[in-house]
Amino acid sequence: MLNVPSQSFPAPSSQQRVASGGRSKVPLKQGRSLMDWIRLTKSGKDLTGLRGRLIEVTEEELKKHNKKDDCWICIRGFVYNVSPYMEYHPGGEDELMRAAGSDGTDLFDQVHRWVNYESMLKECLVGRMAIKPAVPKDYREEKKVLNGLSHEIQEDFSVRVVENVGKIEIVLKKKENTSWKRLGHPLENHNLLIPKKDTGLYYRKCQLISKEGVTHDTKLFCLMLPPSTHLQVPVGQHVYLKLTITGTEIVKPYTPVCDFLLSEFKEPVLLNNKYIYFLIKIYPAGLFTPELDHLHIGDFVSVSNPEGNFKISQFRELEDLFLLAAGTGFTPMVKILNYALTNIPGLRKVKLMFFNKTEDDIIWRSQLEKLAFKDKRFDVEFVLSAPTSEWNGKRGYISPALLSQFLKRSLDNSRVLICICGPTPFTEQGIRLLHDLNFSKDEIHSFTA
Fold it and tell me: What is the value of pTM for the model shown?
């Protein structure tokens, strides 16, 4: 429903994608950019129509404000007057009007849960819904307490996630060699089941440890998690990075990667459970990535909990895995490659077709070639749209001819999964071509915006 204007996400050539269905954008009028909206929110103009007052809003009152020039929307219990934002919304007025005078939380989560609406619409806040939350059951008398600890523990702890059965093993060490008479007291919301859509995104501040050039415009960023923190990002899922730019919090989705395709090719210097890595293309005219690139070592970036709809179960009994990536659409493929070649015993073939403009744009080319040499199940093909005359590889754009030659099963009836990620036109065209080649919906997973 609500969205950051077009400069923020996705940029026209951005290949960082959220794993969900796409939606149409509408052209914005001149003077209706993200920076124009930020200037308006800082102008002191009354955007709520309440002259600075905050009110409690009943359901009956909310329903009355359902017109374009008087449009209130509730998100997670807070009500916003979005009428001033209508002309700045890339999805158009009609999309906002779908939630006019009602609770738009579900619609918001379906379309772009990642948007930091609290910051974007803080000057449009009307007030809170006049609905009292349910009082949780009192568990203070419960004999067995599983949340909270009664004594301090060491910061050095281990977490092991067994993805195929959904279990998590956490090993904690006491700071002092003393006997614990109890585990501790229950934390807030202990024993309550809260739908994920109602929890919002939780951010932790991560410290920038290093940034290294990978290509002429792509860098590998290493962030360190806060002390006593563990973040497990499932294969094929993404997180959101958040920065404050000109006084407004801007959020962008990125897929974490391994720091190296083949860990045995480098000495293990950093502990994997403390660090998170991102391959990010820097767009000089962009809003977010230049600010990210200007950060100094030791500065902080906020990182959200993971989201996405890619399921490890899609690898079950898989025999052939085909990956189609363009530019930094390669990032989801890093962990997919690593997981597939390590954990799928019945896998016969893994092939990556990697589309770029020039040879200088190819991310981790030497690593991919080393991986193909080391593991005979893996093969990579590079396709360039603007190569030099010395280029002997494949040329052009995604096409029926390239795909029909590339997507050959190891057996006539082998179980196949095709993953595709890149700019929206690339992905949409690729999906159409895959359907034309008689691949089913269940055999295709797209990382799209």
Answer: 0.68
